[in-house]
């Protein structure tokens, strides 16, 4: 991890507002049994094909929206793109309109703790998760050769 990463305030909750135009691939699996194995598989598949995604803003940032219930989860591996342009046929373009999110920064090794802390904070400050018209996001800041990387968890509110 670089020095900038180490200075980031980890496990501190905040409200952010963001919008994205994403392109990527997805998988659907049983929940929770399929996690994190299937999520990692789909991310690795996208990274192997990153040269096929056009107009990528930053190929070191992998964004994973997901939808789940008590039985199934659909998990995406995406790159943010600068504009809507033709992409490979098996990839989806996902526009996410400007949304307010409860956010916490953690690492790929502390995701469970990050979610626990974020949901406790949301409960404490009386924030309700938005279930319709928005999706949760996991944002991975990839660094070559690093086992532990920065991750942002975003819950729509």
UniProtKB/TrEMBL annotation:
Highest taxon of source: Bacteria
This protein's species is Alkalihalobacillus alcalophilus ATCC 27647 = CGMCC 1.3604
Q: Output this protein's name.
A: Integron-associated effector binding protein domain-containing protein
Q: Which residues form the Integron-associated effector binding protein domain?
A: 21-157
Gene3D superfamilies per the UniProt record, alphabetical? Regulatory factor, effector binding domain
Could you tell me which InterPro entries the record lists for this protein? Cass2, Reg_factor_effector_dom_sf
